[in-house]
Amino acid sequence: MKFHWFAEATYDDLPEVFPQRHQSGSVDYPAALVDSARVGANYRMQIRLMQQADRLGWDGLAVNEHHQSTFAMTPSPNLMAASLAGTTENAAILVIGDSLALYNPPVRVAEEMAYLDCLSEGRVIAGFVFGTPMDTAFAYGVPPAELRDRFHEARRLITRAWTEPEPFAFNGTYTKLRYVNTLPRPVQAMPPVWVPGTGSVETWDLVLDENYCYGYLSFFGLANARPIVAGFWDRVEQRGLDPNPYRMAFTQLVCVADTDAEAEARYAEAVRYFFTRQKGAPHYGAPPGYTSQASQREALDRAKGVSPETRLKATRGELSFWEYDELGFIVAGTPERVRQRLRELATELRIGQLITCMHMGNLPEETAAMNNELFGTQVAPYLRDLWADHEDHWTPAVSQHRVAAHAPRIPVPSRQESTR
Amino acid sequence: MTTLEIPNIGTFDIELLEEGSGAPLLYLHGYERHPGTAGFLTRLAENRRVLAPEQPGYGRSTGFENFTDVIDVALYHRELLESLGVEDVDVVGHSLGGMFAAELAAIAPQLVRRLVLVNPFGIWLDDEPTLDPFGPAAEVKAAKWHGEAPKDEPTNFVPDPDDPHAAILFSAQNLGSATKFMWPIADRGLRRRLPLIDAPTLVVHGTSDGLLPVSYADEFVRLIPNAELALIDAAGHYPMVEQEDEFVSVVSKFLDA
Fold first, then answer.
1. Is the ipTM of this complex over 0.95?
2. Which end of chain A offers a freer environment for a tag, N or C, measured as fewer CB atoms within 10 Å?
3. Nearest partner of A330 among A296, A358, A370, A303, judged by Cα
């Protein structure tokens, strides 16, 4: 079982009235609400937390791309990845990912990920993402009808840019280049590729055709994921492929403390902030043409793991801390409790790559650092045996070796020895 | 279904509504959907042969993936007319169909006898940015109509008792296809080609259209060499529905002149 550290770079000082007064925290939010000096402090905190996670044995450090959003202020994941590639030692640099259709020309992705792979000595995981509707259609103006086509053309170009030994010409519909000869090239001949999705059948077939890792990156936990993840594994089986758990990544908000009461005291406000401030206007979520007919039909027919009413309650802050936990939106409590629940989750969903969200909303850095330490020393080491009989083809060899050599093990090191 | 095979481009299977006889009239529908056998089309067909194809990518009509840009759409319409054995045709285009009709008249001027553009998309005015036609559904609905929205908007949608999602998917597919030419701004360079239109042109515009202010119609009239404007009051984006009599009257008068 692998663990990848992640947090949304959420702006941590939106007013309490924000959810009522503003219809959306993305696209057309009031820019005056955001103080740039504070954004810088948020970034620096996130980088420190990820450096700590590297020392504590996480297998990967995940960064993502979003535009015009107070929920995730990371317009270029490659920039944050660059801060990490040069200042960490072991963990994979999980860029999850670059929204391929938004780079012009897309060889920019090939270049920047190669730069990161060189700088990190071969630790890059290349995430290729379609991008959310808000990012692609609204903030960046790509016609939804063209998004997937642009994504695939860019993906083919980037793959060739990394692997073809000679300069080549590329005559695509959206990108035309006479001389493709990318420099630098990745240290890894071809970095492992991860593609997140939301349950589209086309995306399942893409990752299975290309041997990519599939990520279902939701913040709504086990029950919500169940039907979609089951659909993915059904597809793997239908196609007669190896159901290797490392094919799949999943996100989970995690709140560890020495006691359950302390978990509630320390994390409740931040969890509430996280869920209540990520509001988006409904029409930003589903522009016409963004989802194929087949996938729309699939989504309409699929049983909902979590009812829309419950989601609404979550985003209105009408759930208690332990209700968020019961629903699986968070996994909270003592290290023992978190271990047990994550083992159940990973076993049931058959997840080999767990993306742990260790900071959320307006959580103070001190608490997030504690979360890291407790998880890194008292949770992760007890779960590493899970799926040990499967080979992970989707994280870089260099990071696998280094993490195996350095990550904390059972028995747990004492607090003084650790990096807290 | 009418099948059109264009060499080196691809195959199109399209629903073609054909009504009446006489001089041919090509009707190109708007961004939301084909109107079906709507009253205004039936009336225009009283002394004409109305040809109202569904756009590729809408409803059951296929071939959308063959389009790389709006010029392909104009060339497709040229081929469609040729395959129907029609030349010297009157063309009426509404909304996104207005953009397509204007492109056709600019690129194949020899085919178009008279041109009618009804609340057409296709240009952008910096001084008067318009509402997003893909914005919040309630807002767009309110903007489209002068008065109350009609209970049933004209459509060629046929409910399927076995498919509870048919209506949602029909609408999503149609609008998704429209994004190719209208997202994020419905400007694919038509302004540069409007001066190439030879056909006498009538720009019909419902004055209460919250998606396209009257200034947009004025700009079409200014850029097309031989164009006149017919404003229809108490009508929004669908003057042919909200003011059917007046619409049929001004269009017939122009075409018969």
1. no
2. C
3. A358
What pLDDT, on the 0 to 100 scale, is given for residue A417? Answer: 53
- The CATH number of the structural domain formed by B2-256 is 3.40.50.1820
Domain ranges (residues) in chain B: 2-256
Between residues B8 and B133, the one the model is more confident about: B133
**Whole-angstrom Cα distance, residue A223 to residue A221?**
6
Residues 166-225 of B with CB under 8 A from A: 168-169, 171-185
Instruction: Report phi then psi at B18, rounded to 5.
Output: -125, 130
Q: Which of residues 161-220 of A touch B (CB under 8 A)?
A: 173
Question: DSSP for A90-121?
Answer: SSEEEEEEEEGGGSSSTHHHHHHHHHHHHHTT
Report, as an integer, the average pLDDT of B71-83: 97
Residues in B touching A300 (Cβ below 8 Å): 165, 168-169
Q: Is the model's pLDDT at A315 over the cut of 90?
A: no
pLDDT at residue number A420: 45
| Predicted confidence (pLDDT) per residue in A178-219, tens digit | 999 999 999 998 999 999 988 888 899 999 999 999 999 989
- What are the two backbone dihedrals, phi and then psi, of residue A181, each rounded to the nearest 5 degrees? -155, 70
Task: Give the gap in angstroms from C-alpha B159 to the nearest C-alpha of chain A.
Answer: 16
Residue A236 belongs to a domain with what CATH number? 3.20.20.30
Q: Pick from A84, A101, A25: which is nearest to A275 by CA?
A: A25
Number of domains in chain A: 1
In contact, A188 and A280? CB cutoff 8 Å: no
Q: Which domain holds residue A195?
A: 2-417
Cβ atoms A68, A26 nearer than 8 A: yes
Q: What is the average pLDDT score of chain A? A: 94
Query: Is residue B136 within 8 angstroms of chain A, CB to CB?
Result: yes
Task: Please provide residue B34's backbone torsions phi and psi, each rounded to the nearest 5 degrees.
Answer: -75, 140
